[in-house]
C-alpha cells in the first residue's frame, strides 16, 4: 500500500479527531467569520506527486483555501436562498461519507429504503398525499427538470407519442406557461430539448409576481385543446409570491395541462400555521419541486422531486443493463432520476427530521419569517430605502439610494452580511433571504444597523 495511504490507515482515529477538532473550531467561529470575504487569487499548486497524507492535506487546505471560504453556513448569509446545516444533518452527512452507499438500488443495502422513508416523511410534512412518490436529486434545477420531463412525457401520451422512445422530434413543439418562472425552468427546458422559447410568460397580477389566472385561461384557450405544461410558483425568488393553486387547478375542468409546482423554498410555508394557506392545492399538482439545502438546512446538495405519475417517470428515466435490477412495481431509484450512481443524500435529511421532527423545523421556519419581517420593519426607518413588496414570507426585497453595486460590495467587505442584487419590476434592488437555522431577529437588527451605517454615513 502506498506509504501515505498506509500511514493514514494506521492513524485513522487520530486523523478523524484532528479533522473533528478543526471543524469544531470553524463552527465555533461561524457567527463572527467574515460572511463573504472578497475573493483573493490563490496561486495554483503543482499536481502532488507522492502526496502529503491527510495531515499535510489539511494543513495545506487551512493555509491556502480556508481563509477564502465564505461564512455561508452562518446566520447573516442572506444571499440567494441559502440554508445552513443543522447539527443532526451534519452528523448524517458525515456518516453518508463513512458508509459511502450507492443509493441507486436495493442490492445488498437498506439505503434505498431509508431514502423511501425520508421521501414519505417529507411528503407528509409538505401536505402531499400518498398518491405522490418521489426521489432525492441534487437541487431545485434537477427537481424542476425531472418534473418537466415527466410532464413532457404526459403531453406525448395525450398526443399518441412515446417521447422517451421516439424523441421530441416525433412530438413537435410543446408549450409551457408560467407567470414568473425561475431561471432553472428555462435551463431545464433547454436540457430537455424543448428549448427556452417553449416557455411563454403569462401576465401577472398588478404589482405582483403571481400569475393572473384569467390571463392563464386565455393562454390555454388559445392552444385550442393541445395539452401544455403550467409551471405554478409556490414562492417566487424576489418577493416569495404565490400563485393561486386552487384557481389554477379549477382550469383543468376546461383545459388539459400538466401542473408542475415550483415550491423550492415556498413549500416550507406548509409548516407555518399563519402561511400554510399559501400552498393550498399543492397536493393536487402533478409534480412538485422542493429544495432541501435551503430551508430544511441540510448540506449541499439535496432536493426532492414528487410526482403523481411514477409510471411516466419510469418511462423517462429507466435504465436497462444486464447488471442492473429490472423495473419492478417498486422501481429502484436509478429508474427515477437522471443519475445512475448517486450519493445517499437522504441520510442527512433523515437525521435532521428524526432529530427535530416537524416541530423543530416549524420553529426554524417561523423564526426565519419573524427575522425577515423584523428586517423589513427596520429598513423603513432608513432614509431612501424602500420596500418594493410586502414581506410575505422569508425574503425582503428593497431598493437603496446610491450606487447599488457599491452598496453590495460594501456590505460584503464589512464581513457582517451578504446580500444579493436583483431586478424587480425593472428596478435594481437588494434581496435578503432568511433560511438559516441559526438566524434570529438579533441578526436582522445587526444587518439593519449595518445598512443604516452604510447608507447614512
Mind explaining what this structure looks like?
- By secondary structure, the chain is of the alpha/beta class.
- It has a domain at 90-351: 3-Layer(aba) Sandwich (Aspartate Aminotransferase, domain 2), CATH 3.40.640.10.
- The protein is built from 16 helices and eleven strands.
- The chain has helices at residues 3-10, 12-28, 53-64, 87-99, 111-125, 140-158, 163-166, 168-171, 183-191, 213-221, 245-250, 292-295, 310-317, 346-379, 404-414, 441-456; strands at residues 133-137, 176-178, 199-201, 228-233, 257-262, 287-291, 303-307, 386-387, 395-399, 420-424, 427-433.
- It has a seven-stranded mixed β-sheet with strand order 1-7-6-5-4-2-3, sandwiched between helices.
- Helix 5 (111-125) packs parallel to helix 14 (346-379), helix 6 packs across helix 9 (183-191) and helix 15 crosses helix 16 (441-456).
- The protein is globular, with a radius of gyration of 23 Å.
- The N and C termini lie far apart (63 Å).
- The mean pLDDT is 96.
- Belongs to the group II decarboxylase family.
- Keywords: Decarboxylase, Lyase, Pyridoxal phosphate.
- Its cofactor is pyridoxal 5'-phosphate.
- Pfam families: Pyridoxal_deC (PF00282).
Amino acid at each position: 500500500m502506498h506509504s501515505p495511504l498506509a500511514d493514514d490507515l494506521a492513524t485513522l482515529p487520530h486523523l478523524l479527531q484532528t479533522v473533528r477538532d478543526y471543524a469544531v473550531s470553524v463552527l465555533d467561529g461561524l457567527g463572527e467569520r467574515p460572511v463573504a470575504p472578497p475573493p483573493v487569487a490563490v496561486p495554483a499548486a503543482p499536481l502532488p506527486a507522492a502526496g502529503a497524507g491527510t495531515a499535510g492535506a489539511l494543513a495545506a487546505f487551512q493555509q491556502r483555501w480556508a481563509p477564502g471560504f465564505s461564512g455561508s453556513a452562518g446566520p447573516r448569509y442572506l444571499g440567494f436562498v441559502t440554508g445552513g446545516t443543522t447539527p443532526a444533518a451534519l452528523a448524517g452527512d458525515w456518516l453518508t461519507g463513512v458508509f459511502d452507499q450507492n443509493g441507486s438500488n436495493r442490492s445488498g443495502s437498506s439505503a434505498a429504503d431509508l431514502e423511501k422513508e425520508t421521501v414519505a416523511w417529507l411528503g407528509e410534512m409538505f401536505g402531499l398525499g400518498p398518491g405522490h412518490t418521489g426521489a432525492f436529486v441534487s437541487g431545485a434545477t434537477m427537481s424542476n427538470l425531472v418534473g418537466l420531463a415527466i410532464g413532457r412525457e404526459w403531453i406525448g401520451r395525450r398526443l399518441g407519442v412515446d417521447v422517451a422512445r421516439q424523441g421530441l422530434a416525433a412530438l413537435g413543439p410543446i408549450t409551457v406557461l408560467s407567470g414568473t418562472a425561475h431561471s432553472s425552468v428555462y435551463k431545464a427546458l433547454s436540457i430537455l430539448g424543448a428549448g427556452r422559447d417553449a416557455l411563454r410568460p403569462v401576465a401577472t397580477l398588478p404589482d405582483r409576481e403571481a400569475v393572473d389566472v384569467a390571463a392563464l385561461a386565455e393562454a390555454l384557450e388559445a392552444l385550442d385543446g393541445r395539452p401544455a405544461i403550467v409551471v405554478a410558483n409556490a414562492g417566487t425568488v424576489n418577493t416569495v409570491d404565490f400563485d393561486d393553486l386552487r384557481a389554477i387547478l379549477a382550469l383543468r375542468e376546461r383545459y388539459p395541462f400538466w401542473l408542475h409546482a415550483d415550491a423550492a423554498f415556498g413549500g416550507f410555508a406548509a409548516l407555518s400555521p399563519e402561511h400554510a394557506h399559501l400552498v393550498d392545492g399543492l397536493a393536487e399538482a402533478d409534480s412538485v419541486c422542493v429544495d432541501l439545502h435551503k430551508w430544511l438546512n441540510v448540506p449541499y446538495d439535496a432536493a426532492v422531486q414528487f410526482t403523481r405519475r411514477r409510471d411516466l417517470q419510469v418511462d423517462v428515466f429507466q435504465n436497462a443493463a444486464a447488471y442492473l435490477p429490472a423495473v419492478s412495481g417498486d422501481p429502484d431509484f436509478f429508474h427515477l432520476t437522471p443519475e445512475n450512481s448517486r450519493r445517499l443524500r437522504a441520510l442527512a435529511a433523515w437525521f435532521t427530521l428524526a432529530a427535530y421532527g416537524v416541530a423543530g423545523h416549524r420553529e426554524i421556519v417561523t423564526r426565519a419569517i419573524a427575522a425577515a419581517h423584523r428586517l423589513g420593519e427596520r429598513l423603513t426607518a432608513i432614509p431612501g430605502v424602500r420596500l418594493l413588496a410586502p414581506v410575505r414570507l422569508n425574503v425582503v426585497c428593497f431598493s437603496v439610494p446610491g450606487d447599488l453595486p457599491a452598496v453590495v460590495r460594501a456590505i460584503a467587505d464589512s464581513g457582517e452580511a451578504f446580500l444579493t442584487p436583483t431586478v424587480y419590476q425593472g428596478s435594481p434592488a437588494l434581496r435578503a433571504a432568511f433560511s438559516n437555522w441559526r438566524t434570529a431577529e438579533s441578526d436582522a437588527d445587526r444587518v439593519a444597523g449595518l445598512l443604516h451605517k452604510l447608507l447614512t454615513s
